[in-house]
Amino acid sequence: MKLPQPFYQLPVLFDAARLQAEVATLPDVAWAPHPDGIPGNSAVRLITAGGAETDGHRGQMRPTRWLEAMPYLRQVLAGFGVVWSRSRLMRLSPGVGVPEHADINHHWHTRVRLHIPVVTQPAVRFHCDGRVVHMAAGEAWIFDNWRRHHVQNGATADRIHLVADTSGTASFWQFALGPVPPRSEWRTVGWDAGAAELPLLTERDQRTPVMPSAEVQMLVDDLCADLAAVPAHSADGPARVATMNQLLESFVQDWRQLCALYGLDGAGRPEFQRLAGAVREAARRTGEGLVMGSNGAEALHVLDKRVLEQLLADGDD
Length: 317
Hints:
Layout: E1 7-10, E2 12-14, H1 16-24, E3 32-33, E4 41-49, E5 61-63, H2 65-68, H3 71-79, E6 84-92, E7 97-101, E8 112-119, E9 124-128, E10 131-133, E11 140-143, E12 149-153, E13 159-166, H4 170-177, E14 187-189, H5 213-225, E15 227-229, H6 237-262, H7 269-286, E16 290-292, H8 299-306
Parallel strand pairs: 2-14
Antiparallel strand pairs: 1-11, 3-4, 4-5, 4-6, 6-13, 7-12, 8-11, 8-13, 9-10, 9-12, 15-16
Helix pairs in contact: 5-6, 6-7
């Protein structure tokens, strides 16, 4: 989700020692390797599709057995009063990090990632769009993961963060982006046996067999508004950007007509697939050298991950 600035620290604190004690009870088998095989990166899955050992973004989200075994961590999540999507404990080994990247998957168009550090040291550094912060244990942070970012664990011990995805309520966003009072006035949320009964709200499966044309229009408009040519001052850059804009607007118009003809229940699926395939091929011919101005990601990759791979419900994450 795009934010006005790279980082926001939420004015609330949590009991880091209690979180650390709960995390320490997890068996080794709870820690799964990074889905992309990044060395030194592992995670405990807390909220997943079906509560299973999976890293997908889609499906009915449910707590896993590992979250059910950590009552204070569950209370922390429930206390925000928001609906949670995929959520994990993410661990970085000493001396390693997360390579620089931007999160361009469709999932991130409307969601933000909350970080609550559990185990950390001052030598752990989070970089985003030229800004660098250390997130201390028990704090709460969000950041603009559409911008390029990376993490480096320069410490001598593992770094472990609670990392949870949400679209957030209005009150959450007012709290997260609003005026920040002096730190001495921040609330510290400790363990509360009564609060353990708060409901943990989790996402239902958001998919329809066919993506509604209004959402396609929104995604395409956002992509087109960020298109840029490389090099930025090439003579034909504006013309190539305009050609891609026209191609994508034509695609939206045709998708809207197919939705009007067949509806969103999956009828006429071959026609939707044909149109998606045709725009993907045409974009490859016209989109070479186009990037997203905000983060430098290749426009064709963003088109695939944010739009084309998400159009039909059985598409890949």
